[in-house]
Design brief:
346 residues, alpha+beta, Uridine Diphospho-n-acetylenolpyruvylglucosamine Reductase, domain 2, Uridine Diphospho-n-acetylenolpyruvylglucosamine Reductase, domain 3, Uridine Diphospho-n-acetylenolpyruvylglucosamine Reductase, domain 1, five-stranded antiparallel sheet, four-stranded mixed sheet, binds uridine-diphosphate-2(N-acetylglucosaminyl) butyric acid
């Protein structure tokens, strides 16, 4: 079967910010053979390839040149080794459904990552993370098709160079691979992780005091789901891409001067003597929480989330993001890095 490649397709339905960008060429990929055909088509026509999963972590400018592919490879299989369950997941599988079905099978380890929008194939690219767990904590390997050779390559955790909302696929290997499946390691024994402050206090509120027997994987998943629902707008109703900026990492000098200005700011020490501070706090202190310019705005319950209230363009959204970056730079001398990947041109 040959691929159904169409021209000048609106991508509005394919990105969670609902930005109305046009793809020069567009197709869906449901099998490895189709991925290889798409690579061959792009080569023959000298086109760049841009990969979209659920489009929940991208900002699209108005024109996307080349071939835009929607990766929809399905399938979940597993293998047991003692208490470990190795789950191999097609890149097009929905992440949130995977978390729910894993929990339903009593395969533990993904609870803290409940309700994150997006597909399996996108998860390693930004190393999704929430409430104290990152994908890389459960990641074993992935298979991807190389953009130029069309060959299938296997990559392990080290190969992927995971970092905070970061991997080799956002840097050196940007657009060089199409991820087709990911293998993660779960466990039949609960791996309860409740050290994230907001999760911990929500659990304490429910249970009175935290005991190892009281906290179950299901309770963690339910609590994370409730916290997310309370703060993060549902993209189906309020188009958004989750956190729009990374939380900045500060060295000791930067942190010392910030803490003088903001003694109450939460500080999360990380490796290398650096500390992470919440970008949402900085944005809020610039008076921008809930700020709106025409059809784009900053969420009133989470200052790190930008919303398209309808009909907005990538240009308007990025103009608001720049305004936020400038405000934070001027007030705190801290640069906020945009987290989603930006594609296309105006
Ligand atoms: N805060 C404010 N104002 C706000 C919101 C938060 O001052 O409007 C402060 C609060 O002090 C709060 C702190 O910021 O304690 C942290 O807020 P939150 O727990 O909501 O986390 P975040 O740093 O804003 C990060 C991730 C989220 C993830 C949560 C929970 C990044 C860029 N974002 O957000 O990930 O769900 O932690 O782990 O690291 C995403 O990547 O799209 C995403 C939603």
């Amino acid at each position: 079967m040959s691929l159904d490649i169409r021209r000048q397709v609106s991508l509005q339905r394919y990105n969670s910010l609902a930005l109305d960008a046009k793809a020069e060429y567009f197709c869906r990929l449901t099998t490895i053979q189709e991925v290889q055909q798409a690579v061959a088509f792009a080569d023959a026509n000298k086109l760049a390839i841009t990969v979209l999963g659920c489009g929940s972590n991208v900002v699209l400018k108005s024109e996307l040149a080349g071939l835009i592919v929607l990766v929809q490879l399905a399938g979940i299989s597993h293998r047991r080794a003692g208490n470990d369950i190795y789950v191999t997941v097609g890149a097009g599988e929905d992440w949130s459904s995977l978390v729910a079905s894993s929990l339903g099978n009593s395969w533990f380890g993904l609870e803290n990552l409940a309700l994150i929008p997006g597909s399996m194939g996108a998860a390693p690219i930004q190393n999704i993370g929430a409430y104290g767990v990152e994908l890389c904590d459960r990641f074993v390997s992935l298979e991807a098709i190389h953009r130029r050779t069309g060959e299938i390559c296997s990559m392990d955790r080290l190969d992927c160079e995971f970092g905070y909302r970061d991997s080799i696929f956002k840097n050196r290997e940007l657009n060089n691979y199409i991820i087709i499946e990911v293998c993660i390691k779960l466990s039949t024994k609960p791996i309860n992780n409740w050290h994230y402050p907001e999760l911990r206090s929500a659990l304490e509120e429910k249970l009175g005091s935290l005991t190892a027997s009281g906290v179950t994987p299901q309770l963690i998943a339910d609590t994370v789901t409730e916290i997310r629902r309370a703060k993060l707008p549902d993209p189906a109703l309020w188009p958004n891409a989750g956190s729009f900026f990374k939380n900045p990492l500060l060295d000791r000098t930067q942190l010392a001067s910030l803490v003088v200005a903001e003694p109450q700011i939460p500080v999360y020490p990380v490796a290398g003597g650096l500390s992470k501070v919440p970008a949402a706090w900085l944005i809020e202190r610039c008076g921008l929480r809930g700020h709106r310019v025409e059809q784009v705005g900053i969420h009133s319950k989470q200052a790190l989330v930008l919303i398209n209230y309808g009909g907005s363009s990538g240009r308007q959204l990025l103009a608001l993001a720049e305004h936020m970056q400038r405000a934070v730079k001027e007030k705190f001398d801290i640069y906020l890095e945009i987290e989603p990947t930006i594609y296309g041109s105006f």
